[in-house]
């Protein structure tokens, strides 16, 4: 809305207060905040230098599928709290259309796509250059998702091992990845070998997460299924990328469709626990604390609880 203001139309007292406004100067009322396109030229000098310091892959990928933003550019949305959940509606729409993008979790940033979209899963593997045989993880909104896409947590085995689920529910949502046996509901493309026409391996295990992050949960709540995910790392070095501006600068050129900026993260990944064996085995110590019922490599089995 534009309003024209005449200086002669105000009383003298008001005129003095408006002396800095030129006659007939248009006044533009500010628009509400909205998602913006990522523009590296507008970032601070510090972030520009940081982005340049990260090595890039010299080989750019080409895709048969188009980018999912309207003008083919990367959609960059800044949302740092649960109150910004309304900004995520275009992100959810893109994901449901088959887009691949980056969202924050309670640990590091994750590249995500719709679990029900085979071509999106294939694009995710290409964008990050993930080996075809390497499994991915799923981000779940609740235990209901875990029950649907896995065979669940192990029960007591009658040999002194209690029902692990009673212990797990106290640390989720949280910074843990639990390895569980995949159910028949999990798409075959989850463990695909590169392309949709290639043969797929027999159904295996899957890492599941329920992140304790308001932005991540806001996206998951609006989806019809969990999100396939993989952590965001440098394309050549095995290091996490923690700054969303740097992520957009690097992966935007690789075919990424969007980035949700939830602030700079700390290099503290999730704690990974294999729940397919008894007792559960700690595979990687991360942000989540090691609990008494987790056994690490070389440890003696903990006493039965």
TrEMBL record:
Pfam families given in the database record: Sua5_yciO_yrdC
Domain annotation YrdC-like: ranges: 85-288
Database matches in Gene3D superfamilies: DHBP synthase
InterPro entries: DHBP_synth_RibB-like_a/b_dom, Sua5-like_dom, SUA5_domain
Domain of life: Eukaryota
Alphabetized GO MF terms: double-stranded RNA binding
Record protein name field: Threonylcarbamoyl-AMP synthase
Organism name: Cucurbita maxima
């Amino acid at each position: 809305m534009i309003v024209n203001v005449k200086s002669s139309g105000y009383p003298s007292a008001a005129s003095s207060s408006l002396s800095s406004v030129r006659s007939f100067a248009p006044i533009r009322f500010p628009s509400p905040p909205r998602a913006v396109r990522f523009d590296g030229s507008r970032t601070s000098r510090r972030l520009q230098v940081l982005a340049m310091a990260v090595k890039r892959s010299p080989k750019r990928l080409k895709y048969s599928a188009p980018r999912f933003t309207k003008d083919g550019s990367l959609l960059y949305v800044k949302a740092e709290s649960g109150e910004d959940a309304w900004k995520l509606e275009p992100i959810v729409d893109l994901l449901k259309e088959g887009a691949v993008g980056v969202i924050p979790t309670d640990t590091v940033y994750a590249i995500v796509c719709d679990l029900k979209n085979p071509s999106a899963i294939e694009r995710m593997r290409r964008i990050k250059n993930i080996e075809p045989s390497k499994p991915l993880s799923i981000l779940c909104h609740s235990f209901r998702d875990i029950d649907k896409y896995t065979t669940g947590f192990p029960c007591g085995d009658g040999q002194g091992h209690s029902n692990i689920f009673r212990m797990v529910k106290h640390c989720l949502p949280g910074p843990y990845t639990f390895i569980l046996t995949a159910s028949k509901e999990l798409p075959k493309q989850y463990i695909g070998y590169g392309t949709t026409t290639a043969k797929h391996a027999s159904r295996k295990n899957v890492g599941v997460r329920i992140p304790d992050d308001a932005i991540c949960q806001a996206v998951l709540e609006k989806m019809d299924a969990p999100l396939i995910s993989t952590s965001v790392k440098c394309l050549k070095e095995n290091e996490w990328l923690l700054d969303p501006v740097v992520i957009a600068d690097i992966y935007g050129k690789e075919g990424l469709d969007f980035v949700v900026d939830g602030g700079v993260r700390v290099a503290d990944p999730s704690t990974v626990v294999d729940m397919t064996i008894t007792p559960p085995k700690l595979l990687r110590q991360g942000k989540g604390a090691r609990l008494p019922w987790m056994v690490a490599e070389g440890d003696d089995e903990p006493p039965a609880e």
